[in-house]
Amino acid sequence: MITNMVEQPADAETASGPASGPRGGTGADAQTGTDAPEAAERIAEIRERIDDIDNALIELWRERAALSQEIGATRLASGGTRLVLARERKILERFREALGADGTQLALLLLRAGRGPL
Ligand SMILES: O=C(O)C(=O)C[C@]1(C(=O)O)C=C[C@@H](O)C=C1
């Protein structure tokens, strides 16, 4: 797990110099990463939208997984297969076309959340 996501500015103190505060003496706020009030305000504003997007993604992720599980249960109960690889290939291709290599990784995680690991 990543426990320290705070990056230091380019001119941050290094191990060779003394650190005068918790951020190595840069003065940058630990939450926003800047000590400039206008920048901090804009960052807080953008973060509100990011939090909305993240919450929507979490909701959609859960909904997709539930729908995928329902399809799987319906198919198995009817004597069908657990997986339909042709469908998975189409989904992987759609994500790859839209988002590149990261899209493929994302689609693999989405598929696993629904049907479980291969
Ligand atoms: O579309 C289906 O047939 C599903 O079972 C859903 C889903 C998916 O999560 O998108 C899951 C497993 C299948 O192998 C293909 C796709």
UniProtKB/TrEMBL annotation:
Matching Pfam families: CM_2
Q: Where is this region: Disordered?
A: 1-41
One GO molecular-function entry: chorismate mutase activity
Query: Which InterPro entries does this entry report, sorted A to Z?
Result: Chorismate_II_sf, Chorismate_mutase_highGC-bac, CM_dom_sf, CM_II_prokaryot
The yes or no answer to whether the keyword Isomerase is present is yes
Q: Where is the Chorismate mutase domain?
A: 37-118
| Stored PROSITE patterns | CHORISMATE_MUT_2 (PS51168)
Where composition is biased (Low complexity), the residues are 28-37
Do you know which Gene3D superfamilies this protein is assigned to? Chorismate mutase
Which EC number applies? 5.4.99.5
Specify the enzyme's EC class, one word: isomerase
This protein's name: Chorismate mutase
Query: What is the organism field in this record?
Result: Micromonospora sonneratiae
